[in-house]
Amino acid sequence: MKDIKKVGSIGLKTVVYYMCTTAFAITFGLIGGNLFKGLFPVVTTTDLAYETSSKMSIMDTIVNIFPSNFLAPIAESNMLQVIVMALLLGFAIILIGDEKNQGIVKACNRLNDVFMKCMEMILKLSPIGVFCLLCPVVASNGAVIIGSLAMVLLTAYVCYIVHGLVVYSIAVKTVGGTSPVKFFKEMLPAIMFAFSSASSVGTLPINMECVEKVGAKKEISSFVLPLGATINMDGTAIYQGVCAIFIASCYGINLTFSQMITIILTATLASIGTAGVPGAGMVMLAMVLTSVGLPVDGIALVAGIDRIFDMGRTVVNITGDASCCVVVTNLERKRDIRKAKKMQ
Fold first, then answer.
1. Fewest CB atoms less than 10 Å from the CB: which of 43, 113, 262, 274?
2. What are 289-307's pLDDT values in tens digits?
3. Does the pLDDT value for residue 153 go beyond 70?
């Protein structure tokens, strides 16, 4: 937040753009999931028990975003409340001033390093865990579950393409003042690398070169792209929506409107803290499922093909970062022109 404060208008435009496109993305994912829902058969989820939770109104959902105390959300794994709690603590740390908060900032960073190392160790063992989780499911359902996964993949990629071509083309053309054809043509090297590596952070250097060819300023791209690799996860948000609908369908559950609103809020906020590395979407999916009372065990149904999901969603993520560079560059250019006219 301190970096955003320093760059002023650039930071504000960037964050607003990222939050809006992420909300659009998760909405596309939910719409796509519901449109193809009829093709997702209800399968027998062996050893994955689920008890239907009581339905809540939209007002209850809004009220329940805010924790009654700071320890309950952690104990209850209420991820949306954990995110709100983290934001409140973050703002408080900034407001007490640099002289007083240096120690706690360093402590938070060190703890983050420790937790990331723990996640790295877990991810190395995850293929074995995923195999063990999938075995009883596939053994019980046979080819039915494999066919379901193929339809989920198709649904996700249709949503990826629609979001990329529609939302980014409109943004780049209307607000960015650049031809969508030129934009996607120059972005092709970064798109190909992102698809093969499935890493937003790994694609950063190539993405910076591509956006400068499109016309983005280096001082803007050097801020917007690294920030986007951390907080802008449009492709991952689409993945959350599609997978949430699929997992709910497998358990024979129909998500309510308030639950879908919760998914949009959780996915948009959770994307801010999701690392731009392969497999990070799985962690975010656990947050989304928990927020609407769906069983986290359902992740086993899609974990086996997560890498294929990851390749497409990474392309959407880095393309969204690049479109933001183009948009912010054009807006800042217009702002500079207005300032120059006033001075005359």
1. 113
2. 877 788 777 777 777 777 7
3. yes
Residue tagged 């962690």 (tokens): 283
CB 225 within 8 A of CB 204: yes
| pLDDT tens readout for residues 254-281 | 888 888 888 888 777 766 655 545 556 6
Q: What per-residue string of b and e applies to 87-96 under the rule 16 or more CB within 10 Å gives b?
A: eeeeeeeeee
pTM of the predicted model as reported, rounded to 2 decimal places? 0.70
H runs (alpha helix) in the chain: 2-7, 9-35, 58-63, 72-76, 79-95, 98-141, 143-162, 169-170, 180-197, 204-214, 218-231, 234-250, 257-270, 280-291, 300-303, 306-343
d(CA 120, CA 138): 27
Structure tokens at 330: 């054009």
Angle between helices 234-250 and 280-291 (to 10 degrees): 50
CA distance 278 to 293: 26
Quick one: which of 336, 226, 243, 331 has its CA closest to 292?
243
Collapsing DSSP to helix, strand or coil, 85 comes out as helix
φ, ψ of residue 301 in degrees (nearest 5): -70, -25
Give the Cα separation of 255 and 292 in Å (integer).
9
**What is the 3 state secondary structure string of 167-194?**
HHHHHHHHHCCCCHHHHHHHHHHHHHHH
- The set of residues, in sequence order, having a beta carbon less than 8 Å from that of 249 and lying 6+ positions away, is 37, 40, 41, 42
Residue 203: other Cβ atoms inside 10 A: 29
How many whole angstroms from its chain centre is CA 239? 8
The structure tokens 């650049």 sit at 178
Q: How confident is the model at residue 188 (pLDDT cuts 50, 70, 90)?
A: very high
Using only the alpha carbons of the chain, give its radius of gyration.
Answer: 21
Q: What is the pLDDT of residue 338?
A: 84
Q: For residue 185, how many other CB atoms are within 10 A of its CB?
A: 12
